[in-house]
């Protein structure tokens, strides 16, 4: 599935350099190319290797970290995991043609024709080797890395929009899609593995991109997916409760995120843009090492890039952005106070890259928004319907608080909680919904491997007003009930799945798009304008 992200770069170069002849038997061509392929030892430094066995000078045809994707001639990385252990797939990798193995322990009874390299940390080795294999693509790009619990997708898309010109395409890596310069492909992970990331950055570089914006998830930092990557600017949006299944405490979650700013990923950014309105942002700004320039942003009066005169309504937001050398009035079609924070984050990142603030301000106006983020569905119905990706209690509180303030009628919400994710946020999400909405339909999000009844039990612990919430397993039915209930002046928020076009169950993934479902149901029900 992801082979297109990790082409055999050195081999492609070797192939291009071969003299063009009309008659080249395929196996001879393969042999010729292979002879020109760089050697295994090119990708390691002596200190990386604990012990080794076999020929370190053999050519390799590519890198793999999943035995199911090994191609003949590959170097396979056996990574220790939470669910599986890559070491138990070494035999399978060899059967598929792997000629060299990197592992933290060399298995006994090794195959003689294969080279084994023992390293202290296989994930670290994967990132280092991938960076060398793709020839340091991060260093050829102005790379902006955005982290934080919420706002990463929005801010990276804003940055891409602000930096792009008619002749300059800007790369993107994030939750919704990957823009590789020559094509855009749907995303399967917010921050993919280092092997895929360096492969993608190489494609951007080769397609002529000079900048790229990348979402950096806490899982990505912790699993060394961005180890050694050179970011010019890193951005911190905020830190609120999520992913405690993984990080256990908010402080541990913060420590992981702060590695993107303090050299903890092996590199430090030139500039850090940090949200001063967020308590963890304030802490981070004080802790960033001296050699990193900090540009704070926010509505706080002491922020370097700050917003004044913020005015919000259903049509958009107006604000004055103030920075040390000037100020500019901005009109944006974006709604919601948290989007002021996102606008400032993107503005601060572009300012940090030395872009003209006046030009940035002008371009903000034409930002089309992000798929599934407060996306308005207008099918002639008499009430507002918005599809949003709020999937934490903080995001729900922000989204609903904002809609409450600008909705004349009743506020309704359809929401759910994902399975195999942080259980502790579930009751808090219900409580946040009950704080603002007149009525809520709780339903399935992506149950994944968990029983929906268990997810509902967790969610029910946050119910305060049982008469204002109902639990309905089928998401389409829940949306249908909510559409039936809404009338003129009301607002319906469908939260949690945003841009997603599927629903993930234990043993199947089915097509499901909240936006399409709303459109279909409005059509079927012939909900008429007032
Ligand atoms: C919790 C988590 O992040 N887990 C990731 C981690 O899993 P793991 O360490 O348990 O790995 P594993 O599945 O046990 O496999 C170990 C090794 O064996 C290999 N293997 C496995 C099976 C096989 O047949 N052959 C084989 O070689 C695997 O490729 C892997 O190298 O490493 C795997 C390989 O890279 C990832 O696929 C996996 O992501 C899982 C599926 C996941 O759901 N991750 C989510 C939570 C995530 O990363 N989300 C963030 C976004 C969060 C946010 O938006 O805030 C993201 O960046 O997308
Ligand atoms: N700056 C912000 N502060 C708080 N909530 C926000 C902010 N920006 C967006 N949100 C809310 O969070 C949701 C997700 O936004 P976005 O996709 O930009 O975040 P993300 O960090 O990329 O999320 P993910 O970790 O799932 O990739 C939005 O739909 C909105 O409800
Ligand atoms: N990046 C988030 C997205 C959650 C989206 C929500 N629809 C869910 O499935 O819980 C995660 O993987 O935790
Ligand atoms: Mg995202």
Automatic annotation (TrEMBL):
A motif (Meso-diaminopimelate recognition motif) lies at residues 445-448. It comes from the Bacteria. Pathway: Cell wall biogenesis; peptidoglycan biosynthesis. It catalyses: UDP-N-acetyl-alpha-D-muramoyl-L-alanyl-D-glutamate + meso-2,6-diaminopimelate + ATP = UDP-N-acetyl-alpha-D-muramoyl-L-alanyl-gamma-D-glutamyl-meso-2,6-diaminopimelate + ADP + phosphate + H(+). Its EC number is 6.3.2.13. Its main location: cytoplasm. It is an enzyme of class 6 (ligase). The modification N6-carboxylysine is found at residue 257. Residues 146-350 form the Mur ligase central domain. It is found in: Cytoplasm. GO terms for molecular function: ATP binding; magnesium ion binding; tetrahydrofolylpolyglutamate synthase activity; UDP-N-acetylmuramoylalanyl-D-glutamate-2,6-diaminopimelate ligase activity. This is UDP-N-acetylmuramoyl-L-alanyl-D-glutamate--2,6-diaminopimelate ligase. GO terms for biological process: cell division; cell wall organization; peptidoglycan biosynthetic process; regulation of cell shape. One of its GO terms (cellular component) is cytoplasm. Residues 60-133 form the Mur ligase N-terminal catalytic domain. Keywords: ATP-binding, Cell cycle, Cell division, Cell shape, Cell wall biogenesis/degradation, Cytoplasm, Ligase, Magnesium, Nucleotide-binding, Peptidoglycan synthesis. Belongs to the MurCDEF family. MurE subfamily. Meso-2,6-diaminopimelate binds at residues 421, 445-448, 496, 500.
């Amino acid at each position: 599935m992801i082979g297109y992200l990790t082409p055999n770069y050195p081999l492609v170069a070797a192939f291009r350099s071969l003299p063009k002849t009309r008659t080249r038997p395929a196996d001879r061509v393969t042999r010729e190319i292979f002879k020109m392929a760089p050697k295994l030892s090119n990708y390691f430094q002596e200190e990386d290797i604990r012990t080794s066995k076999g020929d370190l000078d053999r050519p390799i045809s590519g890198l793999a970290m999943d035995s199911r994707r090994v191609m003949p001639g590959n170097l396979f990385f056996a990574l220790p995991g939470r669910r599986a252990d890559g070491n138990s797939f070494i035999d399978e990798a060899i059967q598929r043609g792997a000629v060299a193995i990197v592992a933290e322990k060399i298995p006994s009874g090794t195959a003689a024709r294969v080279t084994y390299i023992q390293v202290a940390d296989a994930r670290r080795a994967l990132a280092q080797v991938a960076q060398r294999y793709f020839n340091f693509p991060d260093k050829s790009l102005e790379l902006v890395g955005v982290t934080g619990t919420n706002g990463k997708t929005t801010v990276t898309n804003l940055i891409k929009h602000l930096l792009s010109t008619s002749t300059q395409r800007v790369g993107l890596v994030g939750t919704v899609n990957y823009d590789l310069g020559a094509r855009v492909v749907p995303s399967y992970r917010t921050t993919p593995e280092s092997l895929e990331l360096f492969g993608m950055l190489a494609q951007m570089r080769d397609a002529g991109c000079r900048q790229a914006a990348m979402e950096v998830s806490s899982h990505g930092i912790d699993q060394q997916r961005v180890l050694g990557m050179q970011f010019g600017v890193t951005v911190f949006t905020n830190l609120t409760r999520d992913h405690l299944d993984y990080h256990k405490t908010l402080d541990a979650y913060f420590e992981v995120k702060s590695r993107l700013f303090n050299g903890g990923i092996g590199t430090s950014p030139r500039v850090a843009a940090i949200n001063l309105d967020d308590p963890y942002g304030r802490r981070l700004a004080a802790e960033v090492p001296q050699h990193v320039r900090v540009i704070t942003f926010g509505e706080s009066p002491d922020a370097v890039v700050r917003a004044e005169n913020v005015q919000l309504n259903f049509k958009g937001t107006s604000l004055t952005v103030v920075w040390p050398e000037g100020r500019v009035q901005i009109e944006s079609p974006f709604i919601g106070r948290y989007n002021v924070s996102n606008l400032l984050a993107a503005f601060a990142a572009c300012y940090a890259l030395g872009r003209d603030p006046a030009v940035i301000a002008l371009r903000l106006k034409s930002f089309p928004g992000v798929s599934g983020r407060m996306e308005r569905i207008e099918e002639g119905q008499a009430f507002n319907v918005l599809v949003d990706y709020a999937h934490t209690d903080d995001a729900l509180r922000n989204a609903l608080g904002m809609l409450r303030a600008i909705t004349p009628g009743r506020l309704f919400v359809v929401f759910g909680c994902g399975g195999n994710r942080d259980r502790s946020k579930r009751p808090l999400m219900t409580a946040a919904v009950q704080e603002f909405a007149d009525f809520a339909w709780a339903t399935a999000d992506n149950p994944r491997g968990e029983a929906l009844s268990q997810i509902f039990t967790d969610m029910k612990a946050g119910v305060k007003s049982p008469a204002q919430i109902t639990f309905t397993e089928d998401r389409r039915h829940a949306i249908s009930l909510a559409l039936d209930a809404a009338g003129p002046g009301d607002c319906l928020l469908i939260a949690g799945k945003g841009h997603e076009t599927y629903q993930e169950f234990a043993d199947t993934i089915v097509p499901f798009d909240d936006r399409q479902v709303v459109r279909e149901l409005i059509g079927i029900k012939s909900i008429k304008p007032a």
